[in-house]
Amino acid sequence: MVLERLKRHSIQVLSLVVGVVIWQILTVKGVQFILNFNNLPTPVQVGQQFYQLIGTKTFYIDIGTSLRRIGISFLFAVVIGMTAGIAMGRSRLARDIIFPYIEILRPIPAVAWIPLSIIMWPTNEASILFITFLGAVFPIAINTMQGVQQTPELLIRAAATLGAKRFSVLRHVILPSALPSISTGLAVGMGVSWFSLLAGEIISGQYGIGYFTWESYELIRYPDVVVGMVTIGVLGTLSTSLVRLAARLLLRWVPPEQR
């Protein structure tokens, strides 16, 4: 088991190394075939710029600001999304009332929400949090609803027959059964929330890694642009991994292939 995991990680690392080497070759040679690599910074230039940025206070302020926005927005999305999903999964009336809004609003991209959010909310910070919240809440709500609906009715009736109250049935039967689907929704929601956050920061932010990336582009600091992109990718991967790890700890009773 350990050897198999080590082998997989080795392949993943090797794949990334090969990608960086190809990137270095394409940029050094200035390849212009379909894509133009002539003006792109090399991995060495990006690494040097990253080394300089980690010694500045502003870079950490941008990262901390984005993480704070993600944390606040995601927390609200979890509470509201799971509540709505449980209600839709257990009540046809609640589903008929809530689900049409989700289906209409869910396809709207985060960028399209920016003008209205700026108008509706008193500050740019609040509008960014709102846009980030919208990115996370829909996947969480839908996956929670599906998980609740897939709970075997036989288990629910058995618990009720044994005298369990509605809240006890929800806590001890429905939520554990729906947890694999909920964990998927949380992981997807975290990924989408980063996309939404960056859209909001680019348009109306003053700090944040998305704002840093866009400002670097406007100032023609291309190595900084790539540093911002890589930082976004790493932060998004780590936050999603934390969500999956937390879900895995709660799903220890579930077979690994079903998690």
From TrEMBL:
GO BP terms, alphabetized: alkanesulfonate transmembrane transport
InterPro entries per record: MetI-like, MetI-like_sf
Protein's membrane topology: Multi-pass membrane protein
SUPFAM superfamilies: MetI-like (SSF161098)
Domain ABC transmembrane type-1: 63-244
Source superkingdom: Bacteria
Chief location of this protein within or outside the cell: membrane
Transmembrane segments: 12-35, 70-89, 101-121, 127-148, 169-188, 226-247
Keyword Repeat applies: no
Transmembrane helix listed as a keyword: yes
This protein's GO CC annotations: plasma membrane
Classification via Pfam families: BPD_transp_1
Subcellular location field: Cell membrane
Coiled coil: none
Keywords: Cell membrane, Membrane, Transmembrane, Transmembrane helix, Transport
Family recorded in the similarity comment: Belongs to the binding-protein-dependent transport system permease family.
Name of the protein in question: ABC transporter permease
Species whose genome carries this gene: Acidihalobacter aeolianus
